[in-house]
Amino acid sequence: MVRDTLPPAQRGFTYVWLLLAIGLVAAGLAAAAELASTAARRDKEAELLFVGDQFARAIARYRTAVPGSQAYPQRLEDLLVDSRVPTVRRHLRRLYRDPMTGSTEWGVVRGPNGGIVGVYSTSTAQPLKTANFPKEYAAFAGAPSYRDWVFAPGGAAGSPADGSSLSVAAPFSPGAPAAPASPQTPTVGAPR
């Protein structure tokens, strides 16, 4: 038989100290989990800025690839293989996933001839990053959601060379036919 070496009054204090230690460890773990979650979200935002910029650059390259043509791609897949030229020309390596949603579905901004002039995330979450964007995306400052981060040649929201207005079309999903822009869709910059 093992005898307890602590007096009865001290046994209660040991239990209280043990509960307090467990509580402190739990609070520390919760704080660490919150920090890790915020860091992961900041990484996703940085990835969204990179991927969106890749789409914007690919759209710009597509537009200038054929001399005399100022056409925008009709589908995002057109950026993978440009069929307007006899040799294989790729403006984008692959259709990237939206880091914020994990989906390959992107919102697209259509120009006057129905071509894609920009893309945006379909996530309605509020961004953590609200300032200090690269100058071409300075318009993202204070945006209420990731949907408002429109990546287009020439910077956020872009603008066609002919000065016509842009419209936001339905989200793009690979394999689905692209929806033509309609007069009922809001113009870029208008509240969505």
Overall description:
There is one protein chain. Helices cover 30% and strands 11% of the residues. With 192 residues, it is α+β, with helices and mostly antiparallel strands. It has a domain at 43-172. It has a five-stranded antiparallel sheet with strand order 4-3-2-1-5, with helices on one face. A hairpin with a 2-residue loop joins strand 3 and strand 4. The radius of gyration is 26 Å and the shape is elongated. Residues 158-192 have low confidence and may be disordered.
List the helices and strands and how they pair.
Layout: H1 8-65, E1 106-110, E2 116-120, E3 150-152, E4 155-156, E5 167-172
Antiparallel strand pairs: 1-2, 1-5, 2-3, 3-4
Radius of gyration: 26 Å
- Largest sheet entry: 5 strands, antiparallel
Derived from helix and strand composition plus strand pairing, the structural class reads: alpha+beta
Low-confidence stretches: 158-192
Helix content: 25-40%
| Strand content bin | 5-15%
Averaged pLDDT: 78
Distance between the termini: 75 Å
Number of DSSP-assigned strands: 5
How many helices? The count is 1
Strand line-up across the major sheet: 4-3-2-1-5
Label the overall shape. Answer: elongated
> Which H/E pattern describes the elements?
HEEEEE
